[in-house]
Design goal:
Order of helices and strands: EHHHHHHHHHHHHHEHHEEHHEE
Helix content: 55-70%
Number of domains: 2
Structural class: alpha+beta
Bound molecules: zinc ion
Strand content: 5-15%
Shape: globular
Strand order of the largest sheet: 1-5-6-4-3-2
CATH topology of the largest domain: Heat Shock Protein 90
Oligomer: single chain
Distance between the termini: 46 Å
């Protein structure tokens, strides 16, 4: 008997066997997709979409048949031109952010920018540059970088953050076209760039910026960027395009603390499902993603909306219960993917879903 209007909270743990069985298929799916789709973002999306469909069918498919089912699903998705459709959608979304039409001096500005990036990269050590490019350009994840370097994924992620902060500073200095006036400038600018408040105090950043005209000028774009905290991301959800932004945002954030590629896909998939629910049922809401360190390293996702609410949370979380018609996993699917999952819903007031994924040691 559904209890309408009740304030319901449900704490549910997951079904780890099924999740790990599907997760074990990921490298194989990734190989199949990677061999046929060269665009990395499109390949990631395809692998994720395959995972969604395999998980959705996991109860229906006989044990041992999951692998052939996954292979067939991946191939069908590729053959159906899903990639092009999705890319078209993504590009449509990107149009919003396009810069104004190129002005006559645009080409010169791009040239300057290109030179400044090259100069900035030259300030990094070979190791820093190689790691950064392997990660940002070749898409190598922090875990495999750590294996190569005999380090840990967390340490590699921290080093990447420091390297990015330095690169931003060197880029701005290269655009200035002169060396900074004092030895204090670089440490101050790096501390501002990384948003590291403890380091800013150590190098006396506040005082220096008052005394040094160049650092005062450069600190403005560095701080503006630093205000978006490095360990959280908030995405407003109002349309389908925001679903893509939410899952990319969550994926990029989780990547910084060294989640495995499989877990990144799992997290992105769960975030997709919650964002999709918001668009379908509430119309608008937000997804907030943050990195957490206590009691363990992990990522926490909070999806909030002020929509109609869920009448019966336990029923909505039951396996096989589909919250809407069509593809997708809905709440039960997202719950299966994550380590912790809580739904708080009140009729007429809205729904908050909180879910957490812990990083495996490594
Ligand atoms: Zn200075």
């Amino acid at each position: 008997m559904p209890k309408f209007g009740a304030h319901r909270t449900s704490d549910v743990s997951d079904a780890p066997e099924e999740r790990s069985e599907v997760a074990a298929l990921m490298p194989m799916v990734r190989r199949i997709v990677g061999a046929r789709v060269s665009d990395r973002a499109a390949a990631d999306d395809l692998v994720q979409e395959t995972l969604v469909r395999v998980l959705a069918a996991a109860d229906r498919v006989q044990p041992g048949m999951l692998e052939p089912y996954a292979i067939r699903t991946a191939r069908n998705l590729i053959a159906s031109g899903w990639k092009e459709q999705d890319r078209h959608k993504r590009n449509q979304h990107r149009l919003v952010d396009l810069r104004p039409p190129a002005a006559p001096d645009e080409e010169m500005l791009q040239r300057e920018e290109h030179d400044a990036i090259a100069q900035a990269l030259a300030h990094l050590s070979d190791q820093e540059r190689q790691t950064l490019l392997a990660h940002e350009v070749s898409g190598q994840d922090t875990r495999s970088l750590a294996l190569e370097q005999g380090s840990t994924a967390g340490a590699v992620a921290a080093e990447l953050n420091r390297t990015r902060a330095r690169l931003r500073v060197e880029y701005l200095l290269a655009l200035e076209g002169t060396e900074p006036p004092t030895d204090r400038c670089r440490p101050v600018l790096r501390a501002l760039s990384s948003g590291d408040r403890r380091r800013q105090r150590e190098v006396g950043a506040d005082l220096h910026v008052l005394e040094c005209a160049m650092c005062a000028r450069l600190s403005e774009p560095l701080i503006r960027r630093g205000q978006q905290r490095e360990d959280e991301v908030r995405i407003r959800i109002t349309a389908d395009g925001d679903i893509v932004l939410a899952r990319q945002g969550a994926r990029e954030l989780a990547d910084r603390i060294g989640f495995s590629r499989t877990d990144l896909t799992v997290i992105a998939t769960a975030v997709s499902e919650l964002a999709r629910n918001i668009v379908r049922f509430a119309g608008e809401g937000e997804i907030f993603v943050e990195l957490i360190e206590m009691p363990r390293c992990g990522v926490r996702v909070v999806a909030r909306d002020a929509g109609p609410g869920i009448a019966d949370v336990e029923q909505a979380l039951a396996d096989g219960f589909s919250t809407y018609h069509g593809l997708g996993l809905g709440l039960p699917g997202a719950r299966r993917l994550m380590d912790e999952f809580t739904v708080d819903s009140e009729m007429g007031r809205g729904t908050t879903v909180t879910m957490t994924k812990w990083r495996q040691k490594g």
